[in-house]
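Risk register update: the risk that structure generation would not scale has been downgraded. Supporting records follow, first protein first.
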Amino acid sequence: INVPGRSALELKKWSSNSARLMADIAVNDRACDLVNFDDKEGGMVKVLGLRWDPVKDFFGFDVQPVSKVVTKRSVLSTIATIFDPIGFLAPVIFHAKHIMQQIWKAELGWDDPLPTDIVQTWRIFLDDLPVLSRIEIPRCLSTSLKAKVQLCGFCDASENGYAAVVYLRVTSASGQVVVHLLGSKTKMAPMKTSTIPRLELCAAVLLARWLTRLLKVFGDRLIVDEIFAWSDSQIVLSWLINPHTCFKVFVSNRVYLVRQLAPSCQWGYVRSADNPADCASRGLLPSDLVKHVLYWSGPVFLMDPVATWNMSVTSMAIEQLPEAKTISLSVQIKPEVEWCSRFSSYHMIRVVAWIRRLFGRARKQRYTAKNSTNRC
């Protein structure tokens, strides 16, 4: 605090969940008092719409729609006001982006009136948007020195796009298990139609990138013992098990990338009903996200011991998988020919004549030059 002050760079708006630290900060330099019940924000510290309560130590959101006019410009402006760098609100933002993609497909101008069905869908979304203020996300991950830590990721895809969700599973020394949502990543499906298995594979790549990024962020501050990943696509899991050289370029490159990004990751199968990335790949309204227990807490089996998890994958035969590389072989079969066809007719006549003469000699027959010629 004092070092920047010597250069006339005094740090202001300090905030902390530690009362001892805040006691050493001048009142004028604090962002807000720890116990300020008269504040309209209830002691919240706001950063670009993302709120932090220093007393309860949780994150929250404050999203209010600004424009009542529904145009392409106002829709994009509203989506941009939702500040969610970690991805807690990924299913809601994905739903809004899907509406925006429909507007792009309609090829409308920035201020042109939108179709009635899109306007109704967007107004329902706007009316539901203030519900996000109810969300409270604990900041602390409750890790300890002797705790066992696992990264658990899930990926899924739909016709609209694909998503990846990651949880931190912490097992204390006493055996108590706590699961924390670390964040989500989503991407819209391309305008050009793609197959569901390809989108599912793109979701696996997105998850591998997200896991790698989290490992770099944690660094030496948090040692991750194991990494697990799940997908509800048997085709993708079979692609990841088999050599990447057996498939076409699109699949081969992405299978190789997943293995390079997360070589120690253990992949398993999860049912769609237990996959928390399913809602993120389809989109949710804010009111649905608030009460979506599977998304916030993860599937129930994460609370069970790791030894009880079924991580076995039933691999499909390569010839049954899509995108398998076709191998063509050109084989030339030479027909069988008689040995005598290798010689000229004149040579064969002379050979046959000498053979018959040999047989005659063996029978003690005499041949004159004339007789030999007539016989042959």
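Supporting record for the second protein:
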Amino acid sequence: MLKPLVKWAGGKRQLLPSILKMLPESFETYIEPFAGGCAVLVGIYNIGKLKHAIISDLNEELINLYAVVKNDPEALIAEIDGMSFTNDSKSYYLCRDRFNALLGQSSFSKERAALFLYLNRHGYNGLWRVNGSGKFNVPFGRYSHPLMPAPDHIREFSAMLSSVDIYSGDFAGTCRIASGGDLVYLDPPYFPVSITSNFTGYSRGGFSMEQQSRLRTECEDMDRRGVKFIFNNSYTPEISRLYDRFFTYRVPSTRMINRNSDGRMGHYDLLGSNFAVAGTDSMIVDDSPYPN
């Protein structure tokens, strides 16, 4: 059973069973404009429903990793084998400095991919966060035994990506590729449920309410074109109002990037689609009070 290649804040492993239950019986191209950790793509692959897919993300370094894994997995494996970085803060910050010096440089794509994996596995909570200058600034994670992906894991992930087209860019352009018969899965940066949960460092400029509204507009356009889509976001009045014309459900979740373990529990996600889903009695219908 294939697993995602990267740790990812907001990864959908806990929501995955509910999302897979919502899949249409059949669909042509699977499209994911917010690729992130690709947990849903991997889940669809594992159940044998992946024919062809398109993934994209605004994070150019994440997309570079997936492109290198797809096109030259052996070179990435060799790059990882040749790395001298170890699990200590000095190595981590040297790696981070080297990574930031190479950002976006195509001639160093394989080294960037290997450094990305090291930082992802050794950084705090697997976060991706950048400062105002676009530099990666996640601190050292202090894990006892972080592991890099095994060579066979990289090879199998590469095999899955052989049927996947990979792009870097804004979600709107990817949504507009979809046509009738395709399935789009939308997992944007979540709208904050509180001031302290406002995690806007995913990309420079964050993901504002204006961006959330832009995404809803793309959903309405896809619905008019006959494209099926599934979406999730935080369970808040603001987000529920945006999607009130679609089918929505609330499901329990945890917030793994909360530094307080007690604060990770007692949350809900909003899960929805623009088509009726059989078996929704196994989900919690979106009719409860919102969190304070």
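The longest strand covers residues 228-234. On this basis the risk owner (M.S.) recommends closing the item.
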